[in-house]
Amino acid sequence: MVLVNDAACKGCGICIAMCPAKILSFSGKLNEMGVRFPEVSNQEKCVKCGNCMIYCPDFAMVVTDDE
């Protein structure tokens, strides 16, 4: 499962670019800083590689084994 801390996200899009399953995209919503944050389109397709979490410069992504 991919969890997004939208309050910590600065909207750089690195997580979206690094996702091999292509399940992340920018949300239509804005966070407190006024930037679009990523949202997960299909949790079931996540391969749990952790790329989004590893490359996020703001530690706004968490990948867990929980469903």
Based on CA atoms alone, the radius of gyration comes out at 11 Å
Cα separation of the termini: 6 Å
Helix-residue proportion: 10-25%
Q: What summary fits the major beta sheet?
A: 2 strands, antiparallel
**Low-confidence region ranges:** none
Strand content: 25-35%
Main structural class = alpha+beta
Major β-sheet strand ordering: 1-4
What's the total helix number? 2
On the 0 to 100 scale, the average pLDDT is: 96
**SSE series:** EHEEHE
Tell the overall outline.
globular
Number of strands: 4
Task: Compile the SSE list and pairings.
Layout: E1 2-4, H1 14-18, E2 24-30, E3 36-40, H2 51-55, E4 61-63
Antiparallel strand pairs: 1-4, 2-3
Write up this protein.
By secondary structure, this protein is an alpha+beta fold. The chain is built from 2 helices and 4 strands, in the order βαββαβ. The protein has helices at 14-18, 51-55; strands at residues 2-4, 24-30, 36-40, 61-63. It has a two-stranded antiparallel sheet with strand order 1-4. A two-stranded antiparallel ribbon has the order 2-3. A hairpin with a 5-residue loop joins strand 2 and strand 3 (36-40). The radius of gyration is 11 Å and the shape is globular.
